[in-house]
């Protein structure tokens, strides 16, 4: 079946602009996660949703970052007033639920470049 | 402070030999551990996992060993194949908290 889909695959934006990154999880998966991966680093947790609500947003670096999942399926990560340090690959993952032994299935990511 | 550490950034192994990737963790609350494999321009793919109540889990050519007293786990791949060349991430979680990842180890399997 279809995996996790992320769009766009690449996004180049100017410093100070607003961007939206979209994630389509695997159908039926109730948990959805956003991670960020910088060069030479592992994925770093940002936020996760169980259903429509953000269950843990402790990884969001500051209030310029916000994510929504209004209908419990598609999620959008929104970044305001982008900075060059926001440049990274943004990874979305979904899992059947948020239980400990439910593996995360990742999309291919959105590479964000802030110039 | 890195809670999950992969101290070898890269590893090179000959085809047919064993690959051993290592991972250390500092958080004693972690009770579930996973290995992910990542090819360029793709997202990480789940490979194998182990619960803290076990010390070994095997799936085909892949075996994960967990040493709780040393807070250490390793992934063994035998025999290694060129298609195994990728970046391998160790990850851990406590209960249903989000996964914490290491920085990864790049494995190169040479034919």
Structure characterization notes:
The complex is a heterodimer of chains A (115) and B (111). Chain A is mainly beta. Chain A has no helices and eleven strands. Chain A has strands at 5-7, 10-13, 19-24, 31-37, 44-50, 53-56, 65-68, 75-79, 88-95, 105-106, 110-114. In chain A, the strands form two sheets. In chain A, strands 2, 4, 5, 6, 9, 10 and 11 form a seven-stranded mixed beta sheet that branches. Chain A is globular. The model of chain A has no long low-confidence stretch (mean pLDDT 95). Helices cover 0% and strands 54% of the residues of chain B. The radius of gyration of chain B is 13 Å and the shape is globular. In chain B, a hairpin with a 6-residue loop joins β9 and β10. At the A-B interface, β5 and β10 of A face β4, β5, β9 and β10 of B.
In short:
Chain A has 115 residues and is an all-beta fold.
List keywords for this structure.
heterodimer, A: 115 residues, mainly beta, 7-stranded mixed beta sheet, 4-stranded antiparallel beta sheet, 0% helix, globular, B: 111 residues, 6-stranded mixed beta sheet, 5-stranded antiparallel beta sheet
Secondary-structure map with pairings?
The complex is a heterodimer of chains A (115) and B (111).
Chain A lengths: L4 E3 L2 E4 L5 E6 L6 E7 L6 E7 L2 E4 L8 E4 L6 E5 L8 E8 L9 E2 L3 E5 L1
Parallel strand pairs in A: 2-11
Antiparallel strand pairs in A: 1-3, 3-8, 4-5, 4-9, 5-6, 7-8, 9-10, 9-11
Chain B lengths: L3 E2 L4 E5 L4 E7 L6 E7 L6 E7 L4 E4 L2 E6 L4 E6 L8 E8 L6 E2 L3 E6 L1
Parallel strand pairs in B: 2-11
Antiparallel strand pairs in B: 1-3, 3-8, 4-5, 4-9, 6-7, 7-8, 9-10, 9-11
């Amino acid at each position: 079946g279809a995996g996790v889909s992320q769009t766009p695959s690449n996004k180049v934006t100017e410093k100070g602009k607003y961007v939206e990154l979209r994630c389509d999880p695997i159908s039926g998966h109730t948990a959805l996660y956003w991670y960020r991966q910088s060069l030479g680093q592992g994925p770093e947790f940002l936020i996760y949703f169980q259903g429509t609500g953000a269950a843990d947003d402790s990884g969001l670096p500051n209030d310029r970052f916000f994510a929504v999942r209004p209908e419990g399926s598609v999620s959008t990560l929104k970044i305001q007033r982008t900075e060059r340090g926001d440049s990274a690959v943004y990874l979305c993952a979904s899992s059947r639920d948020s239980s400990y032994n439910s593996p995360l299935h990742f999309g291919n990511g959105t590479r964000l470049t802030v110039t | 402070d890195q809670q999950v550490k992969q101290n070898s950034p890269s590893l090179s192994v000959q085809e047919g030999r064993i690959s051993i990737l290592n991972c250390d963790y500092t958080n004693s609350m972690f009770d579930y551990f996973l290995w992910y494999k990542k090819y360029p321009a793709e997202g990480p793919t789940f490979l194998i996992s182990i619960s803290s109540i076990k010390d070994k889990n095997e799936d085909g050519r892949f075996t994960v060993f967990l040493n709780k007293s040393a807070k250490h786990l390793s992934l063994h791949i035998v025999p290694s194949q060129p298609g195994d060349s990728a970046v391998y991430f160790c990850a851990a979680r406590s209960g249903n908290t989000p996964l914490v990842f290491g920085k990864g180890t790049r494995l190169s399997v040479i034919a």
